[in-house]
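Q: Here's a chain of 310 amino acids. Please give me its 3D structure as tokens.
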Amino acid sequence: MNSKPILIVPGEPKSIFFEILFKSLKLNKIKSPLIIICNKKILYKEIKKFNFRKKVENFDQNIIDKKKIRNKKIYLINISNDNPKIYIKKCFDCAFLLLKKGLTNKFINGPINKLKTLKKKYLGVTEYIAHSFNEKKFAMLIYNQKLSVCPITTHLPLSKISKKINRKLIREKIIIINDFYKNFLGIKAKIAVTGLNPHCESILNFNEDDKIILPAIKSLKKKINVEGPFPADTIFLSNNRKKFNVIIGMYHDQVLGPIKTLYEYDAINITLGLPFLRVTPDHGPNEKMIGKNKSNPLSLIKALNFLDKR
């Protein structure tokens, strides 16, 4: 029986994605068919550069016959690059259409230059994809089997974070994560939540840790294994973090900095709350490393394996 294909949008033409993709496929056997959505000239230029020898077959997005999609095969949907300003959007639009048509429920995208491509309209690719599917309740989970993290806010400037967090948003993220672990992974999540302020203390009259975060946690404790708020500077110590499999923080770098320090490339970015599985390797375009053939493919290997097993 054929597995559902994995749709792949490589993202920025100038990035390390193709390097790590070809390394991943050489090092790792993937059963699921792969459908790469990009410009043919760009793909074959990268294939030649990295001496990738596996055959790539053309795929007509207008004629979907699931029976003809074979395991272990690689397919290409050619997207015109006549207008580079909208090229990446066209790639995503094609993937979104196939997902909505039910071709598959597996999607990987490569890194995107958010300021250049999204042009400040969305905080990040996670928000762009969620908006494209009219999903208002979603969460960014940086997933590792031992320990995962989730930021309540993603790419907000620090000056705006305190105004963004509220009880409803914190409860929403906790519930989404708990449901994912329970219903999808078959695991009972043990969730820790950090405070916003250093040591969960504030010199101001209004302390978000006491007035917002603590009440949100207390309201869920009877149904969900969640504790906090914990000071962010100590929750990641070995004796503390081993008590949990998810740590939720109030902002992006509060939890992504520690998880990348602990596991480096051994983590993947999963968007929870979508009607399909969207996974991406946990790194950016890394233009400084282009052409050096030194980039680590581990995160993409993990992403491909995660989807291949589903």
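Q: Can you summarize the key feature?
A: The chain has a mean pLDDT of 93.
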